[in-house]
Amino acid sequence: MNHFFRRVARDAMMCLTLGTLEVISIFVRKKNASTIPHAAFNQAMTDLRSEVIDAAHFTKIPTTDSLGNAAAPLVAKHSLNATDAVILRSVLDLVATLRATGDAFVLVTSDQRLLRAAQVEGVLTCDPAMQTENDLNPLLRA
Fold first, then answer.
1. What is the rounded (10 degree) CA torsion for 50, 71, 26, 140?
2. How far apart are CA 38 and CA 35, in angstroms?
3. What is residue 13's predicted lDDT score, i.e. its pLDDT?
4. 3-state SS of 2-27?
5. DSSP secondary structure letter of residue 108
6. Cα 69–92–58 angle (5° rounding)?
7. What is the model's pTM?
8. 87 neighbors 17 (Cβ within 8 angstroms)
């Protein structure tokens, strides 16, 4: 993730507000399982707040009722949970908009089910837990 944050302009990054909650829940799970020290948890939360949540040029996409309703068919189609279906629906909408302007979109997630569903839908994806910086560079030029 640090590689993305070093290479991609903040105004080109986007996340669903629901996605920030997902990241926070992962940090909390890791802290509660003692897989990250308390100090690292605090730093991760501070970095998330400053680099994403409070960052003026980092686009946050609200989760609306209409987005949730539009995501419903993706639950059955890809056997996704509700949150992943909402994320995928927002990604598909963004991809359609960005393609119309000649821009690319890369979904960054380590959620394997969401990755597979996005790939089936033709979305460029990156799993930061499995891919190296060399794997990511071509995606950043896409």
1. -60
2. 10
3. 74
4. HHHHHHCCHHHCEEEHHHHHHHHHHH
5. E
6. 100
7. 0.77
8. no
Q: What does the block give as tokens for 135?
A: 């794997």
SS3 50: helix
Q: Largest alpha-carbon pair distance within the chain?
A: 45
Nearest residue to 95 (alpha-carbon basis) of 63, 72, 61, 54: 61
Residue 105: Cβ within 10 Å count: 18
Q: What is the end-to-end Cα distance of the chain in Å, rounded? A: 17
Write the pLDDT tens digit of every residue in 54-109.
988 888 889 999 999 999 999 999 999 999 999 999 999 999 998 888 888 889 88
Angle among Cα 93, 96, 102 to the nearest 5 degrees reads 140
Superfamily of domain 2-141: 5'-nuclease (3.40.50.1010)
How many CA atoms does the CB half-sphere of 68 hold within 13 Å? 7
* Residue 101: DSSP 8-state: T
**H/E element, 138:** helix 133-141
The overall average pLDDT reported for the chain is 87
